[in-house]
Amino acid sequence: MSSHNHVVSVRDAERHFGGLRVFTELSLDVAAGQCCAIVGANGAGKSTLLRCVIGAERLDHGSITVDGDPVDESSPGFRAAVAAVVGDVEVFAHLTTHEHLQLVATAHGVPDPYGQASRVLEDVGLLDAADQLPVTMSSGQRRRLGLASAFVRPRRLLVLDEPEQHLDVGGRTWLADAIRDEKRAGTTVLLASHDAALVDCVADLTVDADSWR
To answer: pTM of whole model > 0.85?
Structure first.
């Protein structure tokens, strides 16, 4: 574990694309069981920071650690600790919703993949769609399936990029409850969101991306 129980630590982070500076001198710490919400306009750099945290992009300067270790997408320990829903979750076209979740659970060493997939489908409100192919699902259902892909596996850090997208009012209420459950379980949540009500409901600290540049 890192010092002070910080699961995520960002230090003097800088990222730019050509002459465009996305963020600079950005530092933040998020402890176990905390939710940090990143808010701000589209294009402010929220998604870029999340992609750097999960190792999909690299910083130009500075560092990010998870549990005290540098971000390394190739590390088995890092992959085991970090569950992310950033962009569309990739699914196998020929697998049903339930089979997809079983596969994710199996890949992460969950003891009872079938049972875990069933429980998570019920949790996310997709049990009726267990035998459906993801391609036949609505955008809201696919969003729930993406979240289910994170919930079906072990995790120390949950990274969510605008998880409220395509969810109706009931879905957003469910999402807030799910994030609070994650925090109670000791999971750290890093969240980018445009939903002020969701942020007010779940965030322990809020970072305004509009102030980064």
So the answer is: yes
Over 60: is that where the pLDDT of 39 sits?
A: yes
pLDDT tens by residue, 119-171: 999 989 999 999 999 999 998 899 899 999 999 999 999 999 999 998 889 88
Task: Scan for tokens 């950033």, then name that residue.
Answer: 86
